Amino acid sequence: MLSRVADSLFWLGRNVERAETIARILDVNYTRAMDLYSQRDGRSEKLWHSVMQCAGFVMEPALPSNGRAAHECFEFCAFDPENPTSIVSAVRIARTNALGVRAEITTEAWESINVLYLYVEEQKLRSVMREGPSKFLRRVRDWSQAFAGISDATMSHGDGWNFIQVGRFLERAYMTARILDGIDVANEPWHESQRMLEMCCASAPFAQASHHAPDARDATAFVVLSETFPRSLRFCTREIDEAMHRISRSPRGTFAIDAERRVGRLRSQLDYTPIDDLLVDGVSTFARGLVRQYELLTRDIESSYFPRLPVPA
Question: What span, in angstroms and rounded, lies between the C-alpha atoms of 127 and 258?
């Protein structure tokens, strides 16, 4: 497979996943922010700072204290084309990547991306806010999830599909770690744990897996270490590891490139370390360490499979 094709498929998977996750984070928090704003005690603005941190935005607008924090943050997170990780930017990048590898994906997968792109492009901030953001955000989530299902069901599970898988689960793990870093479980353990579960789409799976009265620690442990929940850090890291070994054809338990060695260490850490040991320095410290490891893993994958080589003069 050509390096540029692998690059496009990897970032196609990442950006579709990013659009879906940002939409879910905004959907979960927007109504909460409106309820908090009615109390006028500054908690609404604090919540939006947390949303920015959970979403992993490196650029952050100054939040006004005049009640427009929700409106301005929503615009920045969803519609700002200058924000490279907004929903509109992620969808545009995903569609550009899909267009560049049109021959490598199925017609059905392409159509799902294109429908998402056309829908997002025709939306205007004013009309979305007038109707309520939830309708727009849920449509983005539905079409992003549809792409995942359609690509799984219609594409051959070869190298191209595996690069999409690596991108999808790496972005999912990265965003889950960002969410863990952005919540304040130290001061509001159960309230923040519930918000974390909702942002990770984990409320129902966590309730089904609980065999006793759960506490905040159990919720964190579920999102970090669940073997079967598809958004847990452990599950995502395992999927990355297995997809990368399918690409390199290296036997399990070995590594052919630095990226496989790094993800193997992460997988072993999550497979064999108890939750109390993982969180001994606090949830935020643990989460920030993982965010950094996933960033380094991205760098390792890029250097191995699609390096940016200088063009001779």
Answer: 48
Distance of CA 85 to the CA centre of its chain: 11
Assign residue 67 a region: left if phi > 0, alpha if psi is -120 to 50, beta otherwise?
left
Question: Same domain, yes or no, for 13 and 88?
Answer: yes
Whether residue 53 is contained in a domain is answered as: yes
Mean pLDDT over all residues of the chain?
89
Instruction: State yes or no: pLDDT of 275 exceeds 60.
Output: yes
Reduce the DSSP state of residue 168 to 3 states and report it.
helix
* Distance in angstroms (rounded) separating the CA atoms of residues 137 and 307: 35
Mean pLDDT for 10-36 is 89
What is the rounded end-to-end Cα distance, in angstroms, of the chain? 27
In a domain, 161, yes or no: no
What is the per-residue pLDDT across 151-168, written as a single tens digit (0 to 9) for each? 999 999 999 999 999 999
- 287: which DSSP letter? H
**pTM of the entire structure?**
0.92
Token pair, residue 72, equals 């301005």
Q: How many CB atoms lie within 10 A of CB 68?
A: 12
Domain match, 151 and 9 both: yes
| Residue at a domain's end among 127, 155, 183 | 155
**What's the domain range around 301?**
173-305
**171 with 236: CB under 8 angstroms?**
no
